[in-house]
């Protein structure tokens, strides 16, 4: 299990592993359950670790630490509000502005799009019969912007594209490990 990044090779794009998921060797303190990413496939050098999160009212906060236990930043999950269907996310990295991750559109906009897609599907089923194949549902696109509105990262399913050079990649890796749930 690894997080991979695209690298150009003479054969084309290669998705080389850059962080490995695993558990540290040796005894662990009881009652502490953390997710770990390692620099090596043998899981000897900790790249970062993510705690299970602390519930703070309606939000959940995860601390991300480096191999020596220093805090790299935090990731927060905020529940959906109002007409929003999905939660929003916040990444805080010391010395930088907060990064907010959310989907475009609200329930009404997505409902209209869904209604149009249903109508097209219904029409196609009437003209084509049941020869059509059900399309798998695409994971939602999350746009991550800083306080100035500049795109810092985008995420969709297992793909995360970091656009800002200042964002610590380990925070993006940590979000990938947590998942959008």
Report the total helices.
2
Structural class: alpha+beta
Global outline: globular
The radius of gyration over CA amounts to: 20 Å
N→C terminal distance: 20 Å
- The succession of helices and strands, N to C, reads EEEEEEEEEHEEEH
Query: Residue share in helices?
Result: 10-25%
Low-confidence blocks of residues: 106-113
Mean pLDDT: 79
DSSP, total strands:
12
* Largest sheet report: 12 strands, antiparallel
Question: Strand-residue fraction?
Answer: 35-45%
Which short descriptors sum up this protein?
181 residues; twelve-stranded antiparallel sheet; 2 helices; 18% helix
Describe the structure.
Strands 1, 2, 3, 4, 5, 6, 7, 8, 9, 10, 11 and 12 form a 12-stranded antiparallel sheet that branches. The chain is globular, with a radius of gyration of 20 Å. A hairpin with a 4-residue loop joins strand 6 (59-66) and strand 7. It has 2 helices and 12 strands, in the order βββββββββαβββα. Helix content is 18%, strand content 40%. The chain is of the alpha+beta class and 181 residues long. The two termini are 20 Å apart. It has helices at 107-128, 169-178, and strands at 2-9, 12-22, 34-38, 46-51, 54-56, 59-66, 71-78, 88-92, 99-102, 141-145, 151-156, 159-162.
């Amino acid at each position: 299990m690894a997080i991979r990044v695209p690298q150009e090779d003479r054969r084309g794009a290669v998705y080389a592993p850059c962080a490995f998921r695993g558990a540290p060797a040796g005894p662990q303190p009881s009652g502490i359950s953390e997710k770990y990413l390692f620099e090596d496939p043998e899981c000897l050098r900790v790249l970062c670790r993510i705690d299970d999160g602390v519930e703070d009212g309606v939000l959940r906060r995860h601390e991300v630490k480096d191999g020596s236990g220093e805090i790299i930043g935090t990731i927060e999950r905020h529940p959906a509000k109002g007409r929003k269907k999905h939660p929003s996310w916040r990444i805080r990295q010391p010395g930088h502005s907060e990064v907010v991750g959310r989907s475009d559109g609200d329930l009404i906009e997505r409902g209209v799009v869904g209604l149009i897609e249903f109508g097209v599907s219904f029409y196609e089923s009437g003209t084509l019969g049941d020869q059509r194949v059900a399309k798998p549902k695409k994971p939602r696109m999350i746009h991550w912007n800083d306080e100035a509105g500049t795109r810092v990262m985008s995420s969709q399913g297992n793909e995360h594209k970091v656009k800002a050079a200042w964002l610590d990649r380990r925070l993006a890796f940590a979000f990938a490990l947590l998942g959008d749930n």
